[in-house]
């Protein structure tokens, strides 16, 4: 073997601090589309340009994508400051794309099953300051992050029976 490395497939994202209008972003996306590059607005007055390239490592991937992206951004948008660059293998890019974007949400019945209590007891437990707040309240009732309930279950100092009345002395 001659010591040369085989290129891997990389996804490179440049995030720019600028909030161009939708028409300019479409124009930029159209200019970059033949190069397997996509453009997306980001809610924080910025936009991201993500492209896919074969390269020996992340530095080469970034350099290759920069050579494609920078001229198009300069021509269509003028000056736009790069605030972040991320390079990852295509496998990692796909893993992240396939990952759920919302946590697993559970209602009172599922929380009860997880904790081994009734649905009514779940609503009583909400008065406990250590009990997780629901992520959202919808017409059917509160919804919790399943991971928060699991964490609560691990730490819950569960005592059977009713608490004894404390008599003030």
Describe the structure.
With 169 residues, the chain is of the alpha+beta class. It has 2 domains: 8-90, Alpha-Beta Plaits, CATH 3.30.70; 105-155, Multidrug-efflux Transporter Regulator, Chain: A, Domain 2, CATH 1.10.1660.10. Helices cover 38% and strands 27% of the residues. It contains 6 helices and 7 strands, in the order E-H-E-E-H-E-H-E-H-H-E-E-H. The protein has helices at 22-32, 58-77, 90-98, 108-115, 119-125, 146-155; strands spanning 8-17, 37-42, 46-55, 81-89, 105-106, 136-138, 141-145. The strands form 2 sheets. A 4-stranded antiparallel sheet has the order 2-3-1-4. Helix 1 (22-32) crosses helix 2 and helix 4 (108-115) packs across helix 5.
Structural descriptors:
three-stranded antiparallel β-sheet, Multidrug-efflux Transporter Regulator, Chain: A, Domain 2, 2 domains, alpha+beta
Low-pLDDT stretches are none
Query: How big a fraction of the residues is strand?
Result: 25-35%
> What CATH architecture label of the largest domain applies?
2-Layer Sandwich
Structural class: alpha+beta
Quick synopsis:
The protein has 169 residues and is of the alpha+beta class. The protein is built from 6 helices and 7 strands, in the order βαββαβαβααββα.
Outline the fold blueprint.
Layout: E1 8-17, H1 22-32, E2 37-42, E3 46-55, H2 58-77, E4 81-89, H3 90-98, E5 105-106, H4 108-115, H5 119-125, E6 136-138, E7 141-145, H6 146-155
Antiparallel strand pairs: 1-3, 1-4, 2-3, 5-7, 6-7
């Amino acid at each position: 073997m001659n010591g040369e490395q085989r290129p891997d497939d990389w996804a490179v994202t440049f995030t720019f601090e600028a909030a161009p209008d939708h028409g300019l972003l479409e124009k930029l996306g159209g200019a970059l589309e033949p190069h397997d590059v996509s453009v997306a607005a980001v809610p924080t007055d910025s936009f991201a340009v993500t492209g896919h390239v074969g390269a020996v490592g992340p530095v080469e991937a970034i350099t290759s994508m920069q050579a494609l992206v920078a001229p198009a951004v300069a021509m269509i948008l003028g000056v736009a400051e790069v605030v972040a660059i991320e390079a990852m293998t295509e496998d990692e890019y796909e893993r992240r794309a396939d990952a759920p974007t919302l946590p697993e949400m559970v209602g009172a019945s599922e929380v009860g099953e997880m904790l081994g209590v009734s649905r009514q007891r779940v609503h009583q437990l909400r008065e406990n300051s250590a009990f997780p707040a629901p992520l959202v309240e919808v017409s059917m009732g509160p919804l919790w992050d399943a991971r928060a309930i699991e964490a609560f279950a691990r730490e819950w100092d569960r005592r059977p029976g009713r608490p004894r009345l404390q008599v003030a002395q």
